[in-house]
Amino acid sequence: MDGTIPVVYKVKCTYVIFASGTTYNIPICIYLEKNYPHQSPICFVRPTNYMILKQTKIVNADGKVSISYLLDWRYPQSDLTTFLQVLCLQFADEMPVYSKKATSYPSQTSQPGYSSSLQSSYPRYSNPRQPYPPPNVNPNANLPYPPTSSYGMPQPGNPSPYPPASSTASISYPSFPSPRLGDINPSNEQVMYQSLLTSVEEKLKRRLNEALEEGKTEIESQMHIENELKKSSTILEDKLKRLKEEEDQVRAEIDTMSTKLSELHQIESRVGTDPSKLNIDDAIITTAPLYTQILNLHTEECAIEDTIYYLGEALRREVIDLEIFLKHVRSLSRRQFMLKALIRKARATAGLP
Q1: Which terminus of the chain has fewer Cβ atoms in its 10 Å neighbourhood, N or C?
Q2: Residue 296 carries which DSSP code?
Q3: What is the residue-wise DSSP string for 143-158?
Q4: What is the SS3 string spanning 316-327?
Q5: 207-243, pLDDT tens digit by residue?
Q6: What pLDDT does 156 receive?
Q7: Predicted local distance difference test score (pLDDT) of residue 179
Q8: Is the per-residue pLDDT at 64 higher than 60?
Q9: pLDDT at position 15, please?
């Protein structure tokens, strides 16, 4: 302890566990505080030099034991004996320690306190003062470490039990007898039942939470995919709508062109098929005499513009000389000026921009 908790009693012992027809020794240390039994005891797993602590669901990395029976401690319904019985069942389900790999040690046949069957196994417990009475269920239960032929300790990759101790090892831990289900006090059966029920409930809740988290993650993934599909569907609908509008426009243009083509065929049928019979001047008919004058003035002005252009090309190719070019360009320019003035006046009279 770190000195901040007032501890009245400190009990160190080797707890004997029967599991799968094999006996295991679990070194534990129990601290009883000043307000015990109204407050639950504090239990630690204290492995020896030949053991390695294994972190489990009820034992953390420091060796502290945390089970639902301690969390739900209620005096006088809860007591130390029932706690040890529940702890036995928890340890039998998953061992908190396992032995180190065995190493070779010299023979100890000449040392006192060792039996002839323990020359390569465990030291015999020879402390005559034993604070707890020996159990009747097992004649070898007074040994903190049982013989190799009948006991063992689980270890990964090494089926052998604890390695043999050196000649200087001194064991002074008492052994708790392993409780059996038939030896449980009937008055504590309800407490143990509630404790086991709480453990099962916590395990089910944990697995249910894991399943809910997995389902939540899957639902979020499916919702993300659904949102992406909805966005893509909206984009496709917009594109289809625009294509439909363009298709309607093209169909309208086709109908218009078909109508115009029909009109051209009708006009062609009226004028005949001989192009020499067509009068270009009669091709365009205006609605008013003023518009006819504007049309004729504009046509003559465009003709003068073309004439001046071709006179410039003739001068460049030396078809005509400069004097002839200047003479004709001067007269054409005067006529073009008069035409533009008349066009402007006629457009103003007709109210055209």
Answers
A1: C
A2: H
A3: -SS--TTTB----TT-
A4: HCCCCCHHHHHH
A5: 899 899 989 899 999 999 999 999 999 999 999 999 9
A6: 44
A7: 46
A8: yes
A9: 76
With bands split at pLDDT 50, 70 and 90, how would you rate the model's confidence at 76? confident
The CATH class given to the 7-196 domain equals: alpha beta
Q: Measure the CA–CA gap between 82 and 175, rounded to whole angstroms.
A: 17
- β-strand partners of 14: 27, 175
Report the alpha-carbon distance of residue 130 to residue 109 in Å, rounded.
25
State the amino acid at position 252 in one-letter form.
Answer: A
Biggest alpha carbon–alpha carbon distance for the chain? 152
Q: Which helix (H) or strand (E) holds 24?
A: strand 22-33
Task: Using DSSP bridges, classify how beta strands 51-53 and 97-99 pair: parallel, antiparallel or unpaired.
Answer: antiparallel
Instruction: Please provide residue 304's backbone torsions phi and psi, each rounded to the nearest 5 degrees.
Output: -65, -40
Q: Are 17 and 35 in contact (CB under 8 A)?
A: no
- Which pLDDT value is given to residue 264? 86
The radius of gyration of the chain's CA atoms, rounded to the nearest angstrom, is 56
* pLDDT confidence of residue 36: 84
Alpha helices in 186-288 (DSSP H): 189-271
Count of C-beta atoms within a 10 Å radius of residue 316:
9
Burial 135-154 (b: 16+ CB within 10 A, else e): beebebbbbbbbebeebbbb
Tokens of 24: 């295991």
Say if residues 343 and 297 touch (Cβ distance below 8 Å). yes
Structure tokens at 251: 């169909």
- Between 1 and 248, name the one with better pLDDT: 248
Q: Between the CA of residue 252 and those of 28, 256, 259, 267, what are the distances in Å?
A: 95, 6, 11, 23
For the cut 60, the answer to whether the pLDDT of residue 162 exceeds it is no
The answer to whether 339 and 304 are in contact (CB under 8 A) is yes
275 token code pair: 């192009």
Instruction: Output the CA–CA distances (angstroms, integers) from residue 326 to 167, 249, 303, 332, in the order listed.
Output: 139, 55, 18, 10
